[in-house]
Amino acid sequence: MSFKIIFTWWNKQTLGTFFKTLFTGIYVGKDEFGNKYYKNKKNERWVIYSKDIEATKITSDWYLWMHHTIDKIPVEKEKNKYIWQKNHKENKTGTKESHKPIRIRKNNVQKKYETWK
To answer: pTM for the complete prediction?
Structure first.
C-alpha cells in the first residue's frame, strides 16, 4: 500500500473504503475498464476504479447491479447483447475528445424559401 492512498481520496479509494474492502468486501467481478466490484453481507455494493475516479466508466450492466435494479452479476462475455448496441464509452466532456458540433455560417445555408421584404 502506498503512502498517497492513505491520505488522498482521489487515488482509487479512501482509507475507509480500503478497510471496508479488506475486512468485509467480497469480490464480485471486474468490468472491461478494470474496475473491481465488491459487496458485503449486508448487500452493500461498491466499486474500486482502476485509474481515474469517474462514475461514467461504469457500464450499464454494472450500473444496474450497483443500484440494486438487478441481482444477477454481469458477465464479461455479454458485452453487446444486441447487434445495434454500441460499446460503452465514458463521458469525454471537458477533454480533447469531447463532441464539438459543426459551426454553420449564415452564408453557407441554402434556404428553401425567400424571406419577406
So the answer is: 0.70
